[in-house]
């Protein structure tokens, strides 16, 4: 499924290998804690970016590490060594890289405690679009209004060696406002549909993506807030047609016999526009204007003899929600004094 245009947000994956087994932790803003009974290892940040400094720290509940000879090895090379050296900083590599860190602590009684951790940074892009209308060639995407449908898609970048894991081979767990979306979660379910928040509200959409063996996991969340609809009006020229690139301003001059306008509700739900359709109310000098019932979003202003000025107003309303509405007013100068 392709969604365009999109907003790109990057998330990260971290694999942690402790001793002989692989354990994955992914909780935002909480340091990871790993304990096999000998050493406890903390990682901060828990899900680091590629090419980012990561702080590792160890502690023990059975011995005094302040007097232990501690060695830190990265990818098989001894990088740092010292007595009581319980913290260490390492930099992750690029997306898909593997950074292996081994910690050895020799205590005063001669025993050796060890831990191992593997850092594998990955990326997950999330793209989304709302069920909202925009005119052709609109430079942007439709923003969500209150209680309109919104579709999001996760684009993960996770690697098994040098091979990127296909999206269909990953498990997706979606949460909306921290509530699990069980029916929309599962293997290969990289898209989700939700209803945008109420007017003036805000909700969080979160996804956790994991490889099928649980060896790689990533999670992140985005905040969703509703936008306000807009009413725009375009001049419909008999020869060139609608000029979507140049909506009308506040003042228009009519030099010919007549002028035709079309209006559109920016960000109104497309499904509501299709059935039963939005409600359009045109007024001319504060009085209801005559329009074609088959084309309620258009109006034709004719130029009688004389000269004058008049005000045109358009109100657009969603038939499903009276709160969702937009309006626009503009003036027309014509050759008629009685306009």
How would you sum up the major sheet?
5 strands, antiparallel
Number of domains: 3
Oligomer: single chain
CATH architecture of the largest domain: Sandwich
Number of separate helices: 1
- Kindly state the percentage of residues in helix: under 10%
Strand-residue fraction? over 45%
Sheet/helix structural class: mainly beta
CATH uppermost class of the largest domain: Mainly Beta
Short description:
The chain is mainly beta and 339 residues long.
Describe this structure in words.
This protein is mostly beta strands. The chain has 3 domains: 9-119, Sandwich (Immunoglobulin-like), CATH 2.60.40; 123-224, Immunoglobulin-like, CATH 2.60.40.10; 230-334, Immunoglobulin-like. It is 1% helix and 52% strand. It is built from 1 helix and 30 strands. A hairpin with a 2-residue loop joins strand 14 (159-160) and strand 15. Mean pLDDT is 82; it is low at 1-37.
């Amino acid at each position: 499924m392709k969604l365009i245009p999109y907003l790109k947000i990057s998330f990260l994956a971290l694999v942690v290998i402790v001793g002989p087994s692989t354990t994955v932790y992914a909780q935002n803003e909480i340091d990871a804690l790993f304990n096999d009974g000998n050493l406890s290892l903390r990682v901060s940040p828990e899900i680091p970016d590629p090419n980012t400094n990561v702080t590792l720290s160890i502690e023990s509940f059975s011995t005094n590490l302040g007097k232990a000879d501690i060695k830190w090895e990265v990818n098989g090379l001894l990088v740092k060594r010292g007595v009581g050296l319980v913290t260490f900083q390492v930099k992750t590599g690029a997306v898909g890289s593997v950074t292996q860190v081994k910690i050895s602590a020799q205590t005063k009684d001669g025993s050796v405690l060890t831990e191992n951790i593997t850092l594998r940074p990955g990326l997950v892009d999330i793209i989304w679009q709302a069920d909202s209308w925009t005119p052709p060639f609109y430079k942007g995407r439709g923003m969500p209004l209150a209680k309109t449908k919104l579709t999001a898609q996760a684009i993960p970048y996770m690697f098994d060696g040098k091979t990127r894991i296909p999206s269909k081979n990953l498990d997706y767990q979606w949460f909306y406002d921290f509530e699990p979306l069980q029916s929309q979660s599962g293997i290969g379910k990289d898209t989700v549909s939700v209803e945008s928040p109420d007017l003036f509200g805000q909700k969080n959409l979160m996804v956790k993506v994991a490889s099928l063996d649980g060896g790689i996991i990533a999670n992140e969340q985005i905040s969703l807030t509703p936008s306000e609809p807009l009413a725009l009006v375009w001049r419909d020229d008999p020869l060139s047609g609608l000029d979507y690139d140049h909506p009308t301003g506040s003042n228009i001059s009519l030099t010919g016999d007549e002028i035709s306008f079309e209006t559109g509700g920016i960000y109104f739900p497309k499904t509501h526009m299709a059935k039963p359709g939005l409600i359009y109310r045109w007024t001319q000098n504060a009085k209801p204007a005559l329009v074609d019932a088959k084309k309620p979003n258009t109006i034709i202003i004719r130029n009688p003899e004389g000269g004058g000025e008049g005000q045109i107003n358009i109100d657009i309303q969603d038939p499903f929600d009276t709160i969702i509405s937009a309006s626009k007013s503009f003036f027309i100068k014509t050759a008629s004094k009685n306009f």
